Amino acid sequence: MNIQALKQETDQLFPQIVQWRRHLHRHPELSFQETATTAYIEAQLKDLPGVELSRPTKTGLVVRIKGGHPGRRVAFRADIDALPITECNDLEFVSDTPGVMHACGHDGHTAMQMALVTLASRHREELWGELVCIFQHAEELPPGGAAELYEAGVMEGVDELYGCHLSSNFPTGTFGVRAGALTAATDRFDIKVLGKGGHSSMPELCVDPIVTGAEIITGLQTVIARNIRALDPAVLTVCQVSAGDAYNIIPQEMTITGSVRTFSEQVRREIPVLAERIARGVCAANGADCAFSYEYGYATVVNDEALTRGVEEGLAGWFGPESILHIEPVMPGEDFSALQKDCPACFVEIGTRDAAKGTDKPHHNPAYRMDEEGLRFGAGLLASILAARLGGK
Fold it and tell me: In which residue ranges of the chain is pLDDT below 50?
C-alpha cells in the first residue's frame, strides 16, 4: 500500500467528511433512537465495492470489508448518538431537533469512520485481512450500546480494536496517547432517605429527611478523602438532590444521586461499601430509614502497550512526533471498554481545541462546537492504522 498516495486520498476526502459530519450534526438522535442516523450511514456506504453491512441491533451497524489476502481481523468503533441538550450555536447546520444536540463529537467520529470505509473499499485488494467498522449506538446512556453489540457477537474473531475521541481538551493537530488505563470507570449511586413528614412548625414530631440527607452528603466527602489512598485517583460527586413540595411542609423523603469515577478495580468495589455504611449510619442516628442502590456502569478503557506504540509510530510518520501528546488518564467514561474484553485495544484522543475559532468549550455544553480541521487529523489517524495493520504482511 502506497502511504503517500493514501495520505493524498485521505486529504481529498476531507470535504466529504465535513459534509457527512454536518448532516449528522443537523439531524441528531438520542441513545437507542438512532434510526435515521443508522439509515443515513447505511445509504452512504452500501453501494461501495466489497462492503458487507449488517444490523446486529436495532440501531447499530457493522460494516465489513474482506481484503484480497489472508490476515488479521481489525475492528474500529465510532459512536453515533447525541445528547439531550438544546444547542446554543449560530451555525448554519445547527441541530434542527429541539432538545437534542451532538455536543460530544460523535458526529465527527462517525464521519471519519465513514471515510475509513471508503478508503478500505478502494484498496480492498491490497488489504491483508478483514476490516470491521462498528457504528455503535447509545454510548451516552448506560448500559450502553457497546455491551449490546458485544452480546450480539460483533467482536467474535477480532484480533485488534481501535477507537478515538475528538476532544476540546487538546489543541487541534495533536493526539492524546497513553498506554494503560485511559478513562475512568463510571458508576452511579442512589440514596433514598425515608423520614416522617409533618408541619414545619413542629419538627419535633417529624424525622426530617432533608437534615439527615445533608449530613449524608457531608459524610460522603470522607469516603475518598479519608478511606482511599491518595495514589488511587477517584471522584465521588453528588449531582442530584430532590425533596419537598412546599415551603412549610417537612417532606417524607429525600433522594440523593451521584457519580463515582475510579481507575482501580479494588477501589471501585470499596467505594459502594463505604458510601452505604455512611448513608445507613447517618439515617439510623437520625431515626430515618435508608434505601441504597449502586449501579456499575462503564469499565475503564485500558490501552494495550504494543498497539499504542504502533499507533504512535504511525502518527509520527504521518504528522510528525510533535503531534503526539503523552497524556494522563482522563476522568470521563467510555463504553468502548465493553468491546475490548477479548482482544487488545487502543483508544486515542484527537485534539479539536482552537480558542480563535471558539472551539474551546467543554463537551456536553450547549455552546460546544468542533474545529472541523480536527477531522482531517482524525481521518489520517484511522488511515495510518489501516495501512499499518492491514496494508501488508
Answer: none
